[in-house]
Predict the 3D structure of the following.
Amino acid sequence: MKIRIFETDPNAAPKKRVSFPDDVVGRVRSGKAIDGRPVGLSTWRITTGDPDVANAVANAFGGEVAEWETSKEDNLEVVTKTDTLPVIISSPEVISARLVLWGMGGVKIHECDGVTFLDEERYGQPCGCPELLAERKAAARRGHGPKPDVQIRFRLANDPELGEFRFHSASWDFLTYLHIYQSELEEVGGPARCDLVLEKVSFVPKGGEMAGHTVSYRRPVLRVLGAAS
């Protein structure tokens, strides 16, 4: 799917990087809920409903297989010991992006590509989102605007026969660089060897409660390395 989110604010899109034939067998996650609150992790967490897949992940990347509370089928989790997952991405087409606003009870209120609506009733009509990226972020923070919903499908490079996994991100930062990742995959021209990385970022805020103190967090980054053998 072509990324249209920066059509109205091209200056917000960086010009260069700084610094499925079968079902999905598992999800790659960058966080988990602790006491009902989302918490970011420093290593990748993988969930699946298949014990064989869970054991293969634990053997390859460390961690223990454990059950976790969920209403979905992927009731097994492995909090791995790695912040870098070597993966194989078949083509740019397995990457999709949209902006979504969810309401109470998981009701979808707004779904667009940044320019037009994607839902069936209003498909193709102007979505009315602010043109500038900064304004879209501000609306999302206030709960009035949609947030990113980026999805990538891939196979683990060490064991492609396990099946396809899916990574989902609501990160504005990851969305910002998505068109670069797609361009790099297009240059490869076929299945590409990549690293999905939880990159550590540190900065010192100039204002707010943490002013003058170092703040660190992890952000998802995709590094396209070249053609997969």
In short: The radius of gyration is 18 Å. The longest helix spans residues 51-61. Residues 88 and 160 are 8 Å apart (CA to CA).
